[in-house]
Amino acid sequence: MTKLSVNINKFATIRNSRGGNNPNLIQVTQDAERFGAEGITVHPRPDERHIRYADVRAIRPLITTEFNIEGNPTEQKFVDLVLEVMPHQVTLVPDALGQLTSNHGWNTIEHQEYLKSIIAIFKKAGIRVSIFVDPIPEMIIAAASTGTDRIELYTEQYAKMFEEGKPEEAIAPYVQAAKIAQEHGLGLNAGHDLDSKNLGYLIRHIPWIDEVSIGHALVCDSLYWGFENTIQIYRRAISNR
Q1: Are 20 and 216 in contact (CB under 8 A)?
Q2: How high is the mean pLDDT of the chain?
Q3: pTM over cut 0.70
Q4: Domain total for the chain?
């Protein structure tokens, strides 16, 4: 069964917009799990414009499900944080400094040797590693030789085409990529722009996805439906397929 990991970055963005501690990230973390989230995801960036490094340290002891930290490992500060707090999973994302949001996966051919070396550091510490990739067969095949445990398919293009009313065309490259990952012994995650409308279709066609991490859309839906109800809606989208 695919797990739902709730990305709480957007809650931190709201808090930071006014200062203070509302919403309280500790309460958000605990409530997300209590409401049915099967994991918590954070993506601390060097400028700490949403999740702060202190937030990661504060919520780590509270997590009873799974903790996933995303970020660019070329930043030593990020590597040090991951090795300090020891999440269950680290997801490596090739973001540029100051980038608004993730918008591409790794070139696993060009960065093969770098990925091998950094992945080995995290795996030696006992942390499961996932790397962000586009649904390109060559990149999936090259990812398999980096030593990563999983890949996370970058799903923005899928979400965009699904919204345009082209679901079959949208899903096709992701099914192909997922099959290649499976053939090469890679676990499979997915994320970016997944929402309550497109999530079920994705899981129906790729039921062996291990985990989806969803933040922006889930938080937006929570404004209308409530946080607890929204988490349950997303879980039903996964389980009903």
Answers
A1: no
A2: 95
A3: yes
A4: 1
